[in-house]
């Protein structure tokens, strides 16, 4: 059996004296969508930030393709094939859609490949091509989220980390974002998806973990957790 693409073991993260993660372990196999669900403050975003190098773990391991990446600078982690679309989108306000996309490829030097990937991003999100010359402030919330995901793809990642991609979006944009998540996966990209919309996340995830106050309390196949009475009561309002 091959090693997982991403492996986290006994990960502990503190913010000052506050323990945000209490020794969690999870895996993302190659070619899979893995969801991480939980309430606000459970530690979901902290998990992604620890993978991306934005916070330094107190202890534990983070390995990508068998290599330790815990504590590496973020740009080195991106260069290895890990990209993140952050909560809040992180779009550069005074840059156009095209300029934001090109910044996602800032570590690359293959101009023809960058141009081809930009066209693929436009194929995934046609509205971005129509808006390519517009700046961030003229885009709707759904269009901004599409841009954040497309920009992350411009680094040509093997593993894409998505932090709350549907947060605050109208229903039609939510449906499109989750459709694109599946299309990205079908194109060969593995995904770790942090999402408060547990119903949608568990429908698309091959495997999922439930995080509560910094600890993983449940895991299983996405569809299995979707049918769990405990999950349905806690996260689906039933």
Produce the secondary structure layout.
Layout: E1 6-15, E2 18-28, E3 33-37, H1 44-52, E4 59-64, E5 67-68, H2 74-80, E6 82-85, H3 97-103, H4 111-124, H5 126-130, H6 141-153, E7 159-163, H7 171-186, E8 190-194, H8 198-204, E9 207-212, E10 215-221, H9 222-226, H10 229-235
Parallel strand pairs: 3-8, 3-9, 6-7, 7-8
Antiparallel strand pairs: 1-2, 1-4, 4-5, 9-10
**Fraction of helical residues:** 25-40%
Mean pLDDT: 92
Instruction: Please name the CATH architecture.
Output: 3-Layer(aba) Sandwich
Radius of gyration: 17 Å
CATH class: Alpha Beta
Number of DSSP strand runs = 10
Silhouette: globular
Strand order of the largest sheet: 6-7-8-3-9-10
Distance between the amino and carboxyl termini: 38 Å
Biggest sheet: strands, sense, closure? 6 strands, mixed
What is the CATH homologous superfamily assignment? Answer: P-loop containing nucleotide triphosphate hydrolases
Number of helices: 10
Which structural category do the helix and sheet elements fall into?
A: alpha/beta
What proportion of the residues form beta strands (DSSP E)? 25-35%
- CATH domain topology: Rossmann fold
- Tally of discrete structural domains: 1
Q: What is the H-and-E element order?
A: EEEHEEHEHHHHEHEHEEHH
Could you name the ranges where pLDDT drops below 50 across 5 or more consecutive residues? Answer: none
């Amino acid at each position: 059996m091959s090693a997982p693409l991403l492996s986290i073991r006994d990960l502990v993260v503190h913010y000052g004296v506050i323990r945000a993660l209490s020794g969690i372990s999870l895996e993302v196999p190659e070619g899979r969508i893995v969801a991480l669900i939980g309430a606000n403050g459970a530690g979901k975003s902290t998990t992604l930030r620890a993978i991306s190098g934005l916070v330094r773990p107190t202890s534990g391991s983070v390995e990508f393709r068998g290599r330790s990446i815990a504590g590496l600078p973020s740009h080195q982690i991106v260069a290895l094939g890990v990209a993140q679309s952050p909560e809040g989108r992180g779009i550069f306000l005074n840059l156009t859609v095209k300029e934001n996309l090109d910044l996602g490829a800032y570590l690359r030097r293959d101009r023809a490949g960058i141009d081809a990937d930009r066209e693929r991003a436009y194929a995934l999100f046609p509205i971005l091509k129509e808006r390519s010359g517009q700046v961030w402030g003229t885009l709707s919330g759904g269009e901004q989220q599409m841009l954040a995901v497309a920009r992350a793809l411009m680094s040509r990642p093997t593993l894409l980390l998505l932090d709350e991609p549907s947060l605050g979006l109208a229903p039609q944009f939510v449906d499109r974002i989750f459709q694109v998540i599946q299309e990205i996966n079908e194109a060969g990209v593995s995904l770790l998806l942090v999402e408060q919309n547990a119903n949608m996340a568990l429908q698309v995830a091959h495997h999922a973990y439930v995080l509560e106050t910094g600890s993983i309390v449940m895991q299983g196949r996405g569809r299995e957790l979707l049918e769990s009475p405990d999950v349905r009561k806690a996260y689906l309002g039933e």
